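Quarterly update, task 2.4: adenosine monophosphate-bound model.
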Amino acid sequence: MPSLTTKKYKSDFVEHFKGDESGDRSPRQTPGVLYSRAEPTSVKKPKLLAWSQDLANELDIDYPHETDVEILGGNKTTASMRPYAACYAGHQFGNWAGQLGDGRAITLGEWGSKKGIFEIQLKGAGPTAYSRHADGRAVLRSSVREYLMSEAMHYLGVPTTRALSLVTTGEEILRDMFYDGNPKYEPGAVVTRVSPSFLRFGNFELLAARKDVNQLEKLVSWTIERYFPHISGENKLLAWFQEVVEKTAFLMTEWQRVGFVHGVMNTDNMSILGLSIDYGPFSFLDNYDHRFTPNTTDLPGRRYAFGNQPSIGYWNLGKLANAISPLLEDVEPLEEVLNSYEESFWNGYYGMMGKKLGLDEVKKTDKELISQFEKVLSEVQPDMTLFYRLLAKLPSGIQEENIPGHFQECFYSELETSETASFKKLITDYSKRVKTNKISRETSAAIMNRTNPRIILRNFQLHQAIEELEKGENKLFLRLQEAMKDPYSTGGFENLVQKRPAWAETKAGCSMLSCSS
Ligand code: AMP
Ligand code: MG
């Protein structure tokens, strides 16, 4: 099996596009180029903290020996690597932000495998031309979160970039975690991320903003040929955009399915392949609250709150459509494709909800039932994950007075009389509907248990694992790493299946997170 050190890496992106090969890593604007060469900056003492053996097996990567760990920590590159930081732009919180780029991510090279070609990228490996005022590093806490969460999303079946390794650097870095003028030293780390591509909407927006239609056209053609090779015919551009629309809509339904809130859906964090990318101040929902945003920076407007994600997906696609519009003479068909998002999302959404509820099909009246679920759950705010697993266990013909008792453990607070009434009505209506299923109750419950995870990575658990790791103890971390591999299990890891405890409700890192990472 090839190791990270012996592999001959490909460099298709670098060979295809204009880049700044000077290796200069001072922060600057880089007009005319799509990337800047960037060697990782060495660290004191790279130490392997975690390795994703499943991913390594898929890509045929040998377990890392000493020299490989040096690569994973940024202390060594090999002759076939052409490390670079990509240049992109984007809209952040609704405003044009201009040139951004990989400020702390460095792609080492492309790994060819029987599964295809994958970019191998270090996150936190030191400054690049795009680091602006920041240090190019990442703290252990944010790296653990990205490592575990991207792998967890993979096992949940949600499209995502992957994480191959987590390496501590033996160095401390200064962070003002609460943005309150009290910076502290924290341990540093590097995550090795893997994805067929890390291209974002923002890569296309950058070229459009530069009015560099030639390179824009080239990037679009390259993306289609490489990542959408089945697209052929005259209207490749529209067919491609249609797929990006559909993949994005699908990703949004998937986030809604598992209760994932990304927290920073800026267009520079939107993958052109419809993957979950750039894990920062994310969270799963604990209590079912559409208005929940885990990102403290997002609090004033709640732009990226759970319930807003699908419409933000559309907004972001609008920016991508704008960016590629110079490649079309007539933009009307592009607008039509953009507007197909709504139908694509809702079709996917109702299909997904039908499975969450274990319905044999989704009829018109079922759409009303689904809306009723949204409304009542938002009012009662049970723990989303526990609720759906309890729903799959609902005894058929349950008496109305027994309904609150069945769901007891998923509530965060005592229900008010009116809440109890609407909750009872919802479950009674649901129970009646399930009786009309043409599939057995067992089949229906099996569908539900394949759609509704039992184990999610809750922020308070991540927080506890990180606190332990910072003290040199990896027990909970390893436990989470193991548990997340089987999120739809019917047993095991019992003490991880619990709602957020009261102490974690207002604790930083458990319900609210800052972007400081
Ligand atoms: P994010 O919100 O994490 O996607 O980051 C927005 C931009 O800031 C991206 O261009 C990042 O590469 C950059 N960035 C974030 N943190 C750092 C850091 N510590 N050093 C350099 N660049 C950073
Ligand atoms: Mg980002």
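Highlight for this quarter: The chain has a mean pLDDT of 97.
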